Amino acid sequence: MPVPASGTAHLLAGGHGGPGVLRPMVDTVLDALAHGAADRGGPLPAGGPAAVDRRIRGAARPLIPDEGEGPHHALRTLVRALTHGAADPADPRCTAHLHCPPLAVATAADLAVSALNPSLDSWDQAPAACALEALTCRALAELVHPDGPAPDALVTTGGTESNQLALLLAREAAGGIGSPLRIICGGNAHHSIHRAAWFLGLPAPHPLPTPTGVLDPAALHTALDRLPDADAPTLVVATAGTTDTGAIDPLPEIADVCDHHAATLHIDAAYGAPLLFSDTLHKRLHGLDRAPTVALDLHKLGWQPVAAGLLAVPDSAALAPLAHHAEYLNADDDTEAGLPDLLGRSFRTTRRPDIFKIAVTLRALGRRGLGDLVDHVCTAAQQLADLIEARPGLELYARPIISTVLFRPTGAPPAAVAALRRRLLHHGTAVLGRAATPEGLWLKATVLNPHTQPDDLRGLLELVEGHTTP
């Protein structure tokens, strides 16, 4: 067997010697992260796409040198360049998206997963991770469906995959490929609902107008009443935490309508589900447990590194349509002998144990610790709304439901709002999103940093006012 060249020997992260090799490289990465953040100096690199491209080209070339430059040089150069050119969600002025600053404990846990490299497509590649995933998924599913006969959850890459899985399960329950399943959702529903229907060969969803930002149960009742062929299977999609405003549909009333019409309910709670951790805010999710499928995403309001999605069901039997067989991964005799069959737990084959960082976080902080973080960012969003209402030069769209706040310079037309946002991005001083409502275009601040203080919020508004043109 060939022996690796001396320059590449003893570089594996695993095994008995792996931690000793990895430790100095981690130190190099941490130093580069610190230097890159200092180079950037704000929440976003200044200069826009052209400037970022220029700096990355300078740092990355040669991309594939004839001779390697060694791990420390490569890490030092490229991690520093990546950090310099990153949007930093840990900066309180970085509030554009549902893009959270990850907890240090979750990030450290993710390092262990990368070093060990388990793959959850067969038990013999990930024995402990397999067992921990089963336990943690059940515990999280019990938060969503406390009275379910056998609550369970699948780990996904995020809300998009969770919604896709939910539509797939509904399609299979309605007869499989070519089924007459109809999908009704609000105009506020996430775009992934429409994409999933296309991907699965289902008819395009029928969106109901949501002028108030939420799905109206009366309008849903009317729409279901008017559907031809009342016995055809129908899936209703509700949302608990919209991307644009954080609005939560009236879940109990929608569930009642679904029961009346024998329609199946799926709730996309990718944003809002972590309210379940809060002793007070969990009440906003009353009715969540009445949906046979619920999407969660803990790399939004759960402070996990990407990816950390889940799809929760009240009974693990509902996941049976996902069963799949590959002789080399889940042979019948292995399964009969007690080796867990993992192929029915994901679309994917090779799959890293993203549940591990979630399990470590849950153990480290507990439900109340995570609930405190949820409470803090939701309170900070209310404080931001207060500050906006106190400034005559700014107008607030509505009081926040979770942690998303829409605002704009008073009376500003859409073009001015869009240009203001781009100016802030170009200067690298603030990262704000944009959201369109019937009342026009708004700046969007999604408060996800649990360290955010009122002075940070005031500073953000001062930046907006300083870049506002008459």
TrEMBL record:
Database matches in Pfam families: Pyridoxal_deC
Cellular compartments per GO CC: cytoplasm
Family: Belongs to the group II decarboxylase family.
GO BP annotations, alphabetical order: carboxylic acid metabolic process
Entry annotated with the keyword Lyase: yes
Domain of life: Bacteria
Residues bearing the modification N6-(pyridoxal phosphate)lysine: K300
This protein's record includes keyword Transcription regulation: no
GO terms, molecular function: aromatic-L-amino-acid decarboxylase activity; pyridoxal phosphate binding
Source species taxonomy: Bacteria, Bacillati, Actinomycetota, Actinomycetes, Kitasatosporales
Protein known as: L-2,4-diaminobutyrate decarboxylase
Keyword tags: Decarboxylase, Lyase, Pyridoxal phosphate
Cofactor(s) the protein needs: pyridoxal 5'-phosphate
Classification via PANTHER family: CYSTEINE SULFINIC ACID DECARBOXYLASE, GLUTAMATE DECARBOXYLASE-RELATED
